[in-house]
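Consider this one:
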Amino acid sequence: MATIKIQQVRSAIKRPARQKRTIQALGFRKLNQIVEKEATPQILGMIKKVEHLIKVVE
């Protein structure tokens, strides 16, 4: 399956706990960190939930 690179561009501070947990589940530990994930429907759904905090890197 295809992989997708995502970067956290905004902080999760002062965000609801659900969004913080989603950021952690995606594997982010620091701001501006880039992680590579499989493009499964579950991961794409998680990206959709926190799309205001991350960006997809080509």
